[in-house]
Amino acid sequence: MRKLSIILILAIAVYGCSQGKYSATNKAYKKQAKAFAKVISKYPLKDSAANTDYVGTTNFTMRKPNFVIIHHTAQNSCEQTLKTFTLTRTQVSAHYVVCRDGMVHHMLSDYLRAHQAGVSKWGNATDINSLSIGIEIDNNGFEPFSEAQIAGLIDLLGRLKRAYNIPAANFIGHADIAPGRKVDPSRYFPWERLARAGYGLWYDTTAVNVPEHFDPYQALRIIGYDIKKPEAALQSFKIHFVSADSSKVITDGEKKILYDLSRKYQ
Is 147 inside any structural domain? Predict the structure, then answer.
């Protein structure tokens, strides 16, 4: 079990206890990671099942994320966000923070569950935190994103996609999974550029003919949106795919977009 414990600690801890401004919280991070590893190594088969005969399998790996959720910080500096995510009382976090100058801060091992998605849903997935990597981009929500941070983000997304074989369709925004509750990463975010690079899907309405009885809200559901509140789902869709339109009306052009996307996401 000692070998297992060492492997888990190495997999969970990011960079140990580096010195500097965040040395205290880095130590707290490492202490908590070691505590998790200790529980698993001491009780490798302990879970909710009771009165069972355990026979440990030889075939297993650590859990891997299958989604990437992109946020904007809604704060005014990278330093402010880093402070927020290192205060225990806030109970919010992300795996990565991308600053305006393109600097990427890795705050949590990809194998651990961050507190970033909150109450959310995408398709049939409801515990998004357990399935995803959260990336916060330093932006207050009312301004364009810098070229440096988008370049840094794309580089990071490439590494994550390769490491965990994340499907292109599973790179989505906070607004997508929390319609009516969240609007990040805002209408300024260049989703089309990311999709062209392989992170997210985009539409092509060339020669698209919408069927006579097409239901745009069912198309939203097929794409992944929670349509319990249809208007909220529509607004989240527009934030992502039709950023120039903030109306509550579905145009003929948007029906073409929805029809094309629904075929891609099926």
Answer: yes
Q: Which positions ≥6 away from 55 have C-beta within 8 Å?
A: none
Identified catalytic residue from 136, 143, 212, 254: 136
Cα-based distances in Å from 120 to 25, 140, 191, 232: 28, 21, 20, 13
Tell me if 59 is assigned to some domain: no
Sheet holding 171-173, edge to edge: 104-106, 96-98, 132-137, 67-72, 171-173
CB 185 within 8 A of CB 174: yes
Which tokens is 42 given?
């001491």
Domain that holds residue 11: 2-42
Radius of gyration of the chain (CA): 21
The model's pTM is: 0.89
| pLDDT tens readout for residues 91-123 | 999 999 999 999 999 999 999 999 999 999 999
Q: Is 19 a member of any domain?
A: yes
Contacts of 76 (CB under 8 A, 6+ apart): 140
Residues 167 and 136 in one domain: yes
Residues 148 and 184 in one domain: yes
> Within a domain: residue 148?
yes
Given a contact cutoff of 8 angstroms between Cβ atoms, the answer to whether 105 and 168 are in contact is: no
Residues 108 and 229 in one domain: no
Number of domain units in the chain: 3
38-81 per-position pLDDT tens digit: 877 776 666 665 566 777 778 888 888 999 999 999 999 999 99
- 212 in active site: no
Residue 252, token pair as written in the block: 């003929």
